[in-house]
């Protein structure tokens, strides 16, 4: 790029001399034109230097972004390996109960998350206090984007679940996202499927 500008600069320097020859300019006029051309070449060279600095800064930023992307891809692959350890099903053994299962390290490591197992297995579990050996329970993982209302649910309670928001005061997020089917935030009904905004 610098070569091109240098060639342009030479042409700009020669142009006044050629014009001076054609137009029969005085020596003073020709020198003034020559000085103008030199000033323009100097300005262009400064612009090139500034642009080269910006290009170098962008190349550095690009390199940093590449490093960040590589680190994130590495973290994603580690998380995938970690997630693979978590079972999608669990076979009940004597002495098990839902909060005990939820508290297991590779289930949820949180005994208070037992309602998530209960909800995922309502076809099998009629009473959350009664589960039986050899039952195979589904263990849902991942981010919940919708939830089916069951008897006893209310928005404040749902928002407080650790796998939803873990904060009951965020119930308004669920209400706002489901105004099409919730007319009164104090009234939700079993079998309604509510969106959980993230």
Describe the protein's architecture and organization.
The protein is built from six helices and four strands; from the N terminus they run ααβααββααβ. By secondary structure, it is mainly alpha-helical. It has three domains: 2-84; 86-142, Roll (Membrane-bound Lytic Murein Transglycosylase D, Chain A), CATH 3.10.350.10; 143-198, LysM domain (Membrane-bound Lytic Murein Transglycosylase D, Chain A, Roll), CATH 3.10.350.10. The chain has a two-stranded antiparallel ribbon. It has a two-stranded antiparallel ribbon with strand order 3-4. The radius of gyration is 36 Å and the shape is elongated.
- The run of helices and strands is HHEHHEEHHE
Question: What is the strand arrangement across the widest sheet?
Answer: 1-2
Task: Give the CA-based shape.
Answer: elongated
Calculate the mean pLDDT score and round it: 88
State the oligomer: single chain
Strand content: 5-15%
Number of helices: 6
What level of helicity do the residues show?
40-55%
The strand count comes to 4
Low-confidence stretches: none
N- to C-terminal distance: 49 Å
The computed structural class is: mainly alpha
Largest sheet: 2 strands, antiparallel
User: What is Rg?
Assistant: 36 Å
Q: How many domains?
A: 3
State the main characteristics:
mainly alpha; single chain; two-stranded antiparallel ribbon; Membrane-bound Lytic Murein Transglycosylase D, Chain A; 3 domains; 198 residues; elongated; 54% helix
